Amino acid sequence: MARGEVRFEGRLLADLDDEELSELRRERFGFVFQYGELLPELTVEENTALPLRLAGQRKKEAHAAAGEVLGRLGLADLGERRPSQVSGGQSQRIAVARALVHRPAVVFADEPTGSLDSSNATAVLDEFLTLARSQGTAVVLVTHDSEVADRADSRYTMRDGSLSAQVREVS
């Protein structure tokens, strides 16, 4: 078993207490779960604005930011709906919007395009690449889709417990 340490923004994560780790996850990381994991009692806009509200941002500003990200992902007209009133693919894009709304330093995405058609998958990947290249956001994306993986700047493959890297030059 390999050993090592994980540092983020100069801090050793093993040295952080639970509160500091929670704050780090809430404010600096964005998460896209494989099945969206939206809160059913909140509207689409409220789900998307949630990271900003948890960070203390005022409702009006949080909802404006949520609406802007939803618009970039083709979901602007769904803001007042509940998760039960949208499709699986829409739910997945809403989860992506929620992960991006607070401009995290790192986005962890588990199969974010798995339930999307090719057009919407391309839109989501374009959004990730735009953030990575314009804001320096790191996107850690897990996928079984080689076309999705081919768009990454760096590609790591795990096979039989071994991790290998393929890095390509970004033009």
UniProtKB/TrEMBL annotation:
Residues 1-170 form the ABC transporter domain. GO terms for cellular component: plasma membrane. The keyword Phosphoprotein does not apply. Keywords: ATP-binding, Lipoprotein, Nucleotide-binding. One of its GO terms (molecular function) is ATP hydrolysis activity. PANTHER family: ABC TRANSPORTER RELATED, IMPORT ATP-BINDING PROTEIN. Pfam families: ABC_tran. Gene3D superfamilies: P-loop containing nucleotide triphosphate hydrolases. This is Lipoprotein-releasing system ATP-binding protein. It comes from the Bacteria. InterPro entries: ABC_transporter-like_ATP-bd (IPR003439), ABC_transporter-like_CS (IPR017871), ABC_transpr_LolD-like (IPR015854), P-loop_NTPase (IPR027417). SUPFAM superfamilies: P-loop containing nucleoside triphosphate hydrolases.
